């Protein structure tokens, strides 16, 4: 009989090594890692039977790892551990599908019993393989790796994708993980901002005022910052050329480009624009190895339940109300819709439903807008599984919640919800 496999994820190396030694003596095959993203990578390569997961991890938070695992690998049982836990943490973990929540320092007898119970439950669960979901899981990991890689560099980045796909969210995610995260993140819409304003922000030493010759004037922004140029295709050719001259490593910098880092984005086909002389070909070539393509939501339908759950959680937390349950028929209708305006439209629809709902406890098919209910796409329907449902699970050991050593309150922090490539990035406060 093959050994049951356990993956321990804990950034405290001494604890991880101790758990590996003890559980190996119990007859399990144990692997360890201290990083949440690396844990997802290991799960993709060889899914374990059980995940022992710490809450506070560098990079990707343990709660976010739990969300991701239960979305794409609901068959994996998860035991969540924390030395800084609260009742809220435990409730959140069990709602998301954790088998149990264990407070550090824990009794090894209790831990081993929880491990046996979790693995015993797994044996009695039917195995369901969802190739589409597994493909999305692989894409998710690649997206997170790309975010991590790009956050370790100051290189300018280009984001391409339809309107509403979350290009700015991804840029913000990279910014929040970068060494420049404390600098202002300035968004400039090139289709609505006057060219001379954009020019003065990007190149503060020399400005062009309307109807006048070039001259030196005081810049409106003269401190280091990170700039996100939205709809860069609307930028005039003069500024495009100046950007190329500033970003081209082979040229002497004649232009003083102010931003400490630059992100640009477009919903247009810039390759086509460049062949029509509507976009600077040289500038486009600068981004040949630093372009992030963001597919539409209809190309990533398996992510829709995740996006729905996280937006409802974010709004409910802000309003101080319980997270509503979405019944299976309503969820199926939302998953079938083609979402022409992508994530932005999905969030808008959910906000309208919550604003007009007689009850915030449950969202039914009757509350879904008529155009979505009637929409019949030709693509395969998504059947929500238990990993995507909103049912609350019961806590197993109240003694864990009320044991000694629990700290009041949970640190409030910015949490990045990883999503498969192109589905955008969701930010939320966990408290």
TrEMBL record:
> For this chain's UniProt record, which GO biological process terms are given?
lipid A biosynthetic process; phosphorelay signal transduction system; regulation of DNA-templated transcription
Do the record's keywords include ATP-binding? yes
Output the Gene Ontology cellular-component terms: membrane
Keyword set for this entry?
Answer: ATP-binding, Nucleotide-binding, Phosphoprotein, Transcription, Transcription regulation
Entry annotated with the keyword Nucleotidyltransferase: no
Q: Which Pfam families match?
A: AAA_lid_14, Response_reg, Sigma54_activat
| Gene3D superfamilies given in the database record | 1.10.8.60, 3.40.50.2300, lpxc deacetylase, domain 1, P-loop containing nucleotide triphosphate hydrolases
Q: Which PROSITE patterns does the UniProt entry name for this protein?
A: RESPONSE_REGULATORY, SIGMA54_INTERACT_1, SIGMA54_INTERACT_4
Q: Which residues form the Response regulatory domain?
A: 5-119
Name the CDD domains for this protein: AAA (cd00009), REC_NtrX-like (cd17550)
User: Which residue range or ranges hold the Sigma-54 factor interaction domain?
Assistant: 133-355
Return one GO MF term: UDP-3-O-acyl-N-acetylglucosamine deacetylase activity
The name under which this protein is listed is Response regulatory domain-containing protein
Q: Which organism is it from?
A: marine metagenome
Upper lineage is: unclassified sequences, metagenomes, ecological metagenomes
